[in-house]
Automatic annotation (TrEMBL):
A single GO molecular function term of this UniProt record: hydrolase activity
Region (Disordered): 21-40, 50-73
PROSITE patterns given in the database record: PROKAR_LIPOPROTEIN
Official protein name in the record: Glycosyl hydrolase
Organism: Melittangium boletus DSM 14713
Biased composition (Polar residues): 55-64
Start and end residues of each Alpha-1,3-glucanase catalytic domain: 245-648
Signal peptide residues on this chain, from the entry's feature table: 1-16
Keywords, alphabetical: Hydrolase, Signal
CBM6/CBM35/CBM36-like domain sequence ranges: 41-226
Length: 683
């Protein structure tokens, strides 16, 4: 599959090769060097299917889409993996790099545990414990249940004879749709920065526990050379106790002593709450929280056997000019939103505990000039939920195995950047910008149910980032705002959603104004089957669900919740130099709801290649998400997109599947020919 630095060169060459003008080919203009796409990362990745399998190891693959959730190939990177069925089965690779750490993405059956032995040149160097503790979520047939996503143990607590109120809450048994079936395990082989794996060494993985009853699947391995731990900067307060109380005391000492920050030596800092009413650590203005490195300094909750899973902890900012860098946050979150509380139900009380809105490593108002560098955030609900703030920087961060967003710039965030970050296996958008209207200010006019907004997101940039293996939402998403940019990035292998979403469906939300630009991006094997069945009576029947595009434009709100007489505009969208490779179904899907239209939107250099998968290049159809009554029925997509210098090619492309519009959208939406395309005329 195309990944990291490889995508930079290959995608740009592909883009040039798709053009009609021979002078556009690489090398004809030496000054036009390709702009890299995706994050530059310190690890080297080895797909299991590219290794040498032995014994009875078998290849998991789906040769054509659709790739489905809950399947070992569907949720694997590149849609392929290798399964070990016995203790003599193995997969091995020849290392291309120097390294001293190993990470493996794996899947084991639910409620099982096994081990992976790692060998270098036939010498065992590590044993990884692999289990299902943070994988295998189950849902019912609709979006609410996909959002909630319970582990097996909580599904078993659901009422087996749901009442009418349960259905209204969005719960319909059986909850038998499994997904999020992969997790990761890692080991550091040397803590002094020396390499223990060299180019040419053979790295082999076996599972001594593998059997017919306990198959162990390997998706990929990452090798990384981790430098030695950082030392305390001069003048910093060194944290001397590996507890939340010790961190809080050190922050206060830094304030009292006029110190620049605190330093956290290597170790696991157990975030047992000083006060259960204040589970987060508030960092004073002007301080730096400095770790010894993301492989060495980790913030973790107390063990689950002491406090259970889903333990709330993390950081908030108390002012401007705060920096966090060089540490990791590992949570124990197993589900995102609602949990059925059997004890409460037995007492006749409301049986649902709500968890949505917590589980965020960093959240709330971010103030000005905050910096987040070299952070590893895993098994939380969200990595960073950014509310407001100006001139923020997130750089070289890793967001992995979260139950919702990797990072979301929200509620009036401005002039901020997310640079060279990666996100994989997230349960909502990996990287998002949402111009939500906040609910905690003074009421507006005659609409007391809507409160004063912070303002739209504006002037933000997401660049050189990579998102992959997203199991519920998009890799990159923009919801309203103006003059925001996503560029030079890669998204691959989304499971149940587009790779790129441009959308204004979440009221109350600021409209799109100015320009919203997505440029120089690769979207590979993205899209999937829609999860909702609002009016089709399908009860979650996969064969009747509608389909996403790899890129989705959705103009959804016909009015402003804050000012009902003012329409929310969907305009100023610019997609330039976008390569859409093997969309699961459609390359681009365009939809609107009643009273809404797409205006002033242009695609320039959008190239769709359908070889391994893909049914249509570009589609405009009924959204299947009509606004509340009195709107109902089929909703025509309305407006237009101007296309320039674009193409739809590949073995699966033909004159009949370049474009598609359903009957209600035929006269209301237009794909305009702006010139330079491989087709001629409006569609």
């Amino acid at each position: 599959m195309i990944r990291s630095s490889l995508v930079s060169l290959c995608a740009c060459f592909l883009l040039a090769a798709c053009g009609d003008n021979p002078s556009d080919k690489p090398g004809d203009n030496p000054s036009d060097s390709p702009v890299p796409r995706g994050a530059t990362v310190p690890w080297d990745e080895y797909e299991a299917e590219a290794g040498v399998s032995s014994g009875g190891a078998t290849l998991e693959q789906t040769t054509r889409g659709p790739w489905l959730e809950g399947t070992l190939s569907g949720e694997a990177s590149g849609r392929k993996a290798v399964t070990l069925h016995g203790p003599t089965d193995a997969v091995a690779w020849t290392s291309r790099v120097k390294a001293n750490s190993v990470l493996v993405r794996y899947s084991v059956p639910d409620q099982k545990e096994a081990h992976l032995d790692v060998y270098v040149n036939d010498v065992k160097v590590a044993t990884l414990t692999v289990n299902s503790d943070f994988a295998w979520l189950y849902t019912g047939p609709n979006n609410t249940e996909t959002h909630n996503a319970f582990p097996r143990q909580q599904v078993d607590e659901l009422p087996q004879n749901p009442s009418t109120s349960d259905v209204n809450f969005g719960l319909r048994l059986p909850w038998n749709s499994a997904h999020h079936i992969y997790d990761e395990a890692h080991a550091l082989l040397a803590t002094d920065g020396r390499e223990t794996i060299h180019p040419g060494d053979v790295v082999k993985i076996i599972s001594p526990d593998a059997s017919a009853e306990l198959p162990v699947t390997i998706d990929f391995m990452d090798l990384e050379l981790v430098p030695e731990p950082l030392s305390a900067p001069a003048g910093y307060v060194v944290v001397s106790e590996f507890t939340q109380a010790g961190v809080v005391r050190a922050l206060q000492e830094a304030v009292d002593g006029g110190k620049p920050g605190i330093f956290l030596p290597p170790g696991d800092y157990v975030m047992s709450h000083v006060s259960p009413a204040l589970p987060k650590v508030y960092v004073p203005a002007g301080l730096t929280v400095q770790g010894a490195g993301m492989w060495y300094t980790r913030f973790v909750p107390p063990p689950p056997q002491e406090v259970g899973y889903n333990y709330e902890f993390g950081f908030r900012l108390s002012g401007d000019n705060i920096t966090f860098q060089d540490f990791a946050i590992f949570g124990t979150w197993r589900n995102r939103a609602a949990r059925y509380n059997k004890d409460a139900a037995d007492l006749g009380n409301w049986p649902w505990d709500s968890y949505d809105g917590i589980g965020r490593a960093f959240d709330r108002y971010m103030h000005n000039n905050a910096v987040f560098k070299r952070l590893w955030i895993e098994r939380m609900i969200v990595g960073g939920w950014v509310e407001g703030g100006n001139n923020l920087l997130w750089q070289d961060c890793r967001f992995r195995n979260t139950l919702a967003d990797g990072i979301n710039l929200c509620n009036g965030t401005s002039n901020s950047r997310i640079v060279n970050c990666t996100a994989r296996n997230t349960g909502d958008d990996a990287f998002a910008m949402w111009s939500a209207i906040t609910w905690d200010k003074a009421p507006i006019g005659d609409t007391p149910w809507v409160h004063q907004p912070e303002g739209p997101n504006q002037g933000n940039i997401i660049e050189r980032c990579t998102a992959g293996l997203i199991w519920r939402a998009a890799g990159f998403a923009v919801y309203g705002g103006h003059d925001n940019v996503i560029k030079d990035s890669v998204v691959y292998d989304t499971l149940r959603y587009p790779g790129i979403t441009v959308d204004n469906e979440f009221a109350p939300q600021h409209e799109f104004s100015g320009l919203t630009t997505l440029q120089n991006m690769t979207v590979e094997r993205c899209g999937g089957r829609m999860w909702w069945d609002d009016d089709d009576g399908a009860q979650g029947d996969e064969t009747t669900r509608r389909k996403w595009g790899a890129v989705w434009l959705f103009a959804a709100n016909p009015y402003s919740p804050a000012e009902p007489s003012s329409p929310i505009r969907f305009q100023g969208i610019r997609l330039k130099d976008i390569d859409i490779i093997d969309p699961v179904y459609y390359g681009v899907l365009v939809q609107t709801t009643q009273g809404q239209r797409i205006e002033d939107t242009e695609f320039d250099g959008v190239h769709i290649v359908m070889n391994q998968s893909g049914e249509f290049g570009m589609v405009a159809n009924d959204s299947h998400k009509a606004p509340p009554s009195p709107f109902s029925g089929k909703i025509a997509t309305t407006g237009s997109i101007t296309l320039k210098n674009s193409s739809i090619t590949g073995h699966r492309a033909n004159s009949g599947n370049l474009f598609s519009k359903d009957p209600v959208s035929t006269e209301t939406f237009l794909f305009k020919d702006g010139g330079g395309n491989i087709w001629t005329g409006d569609r």
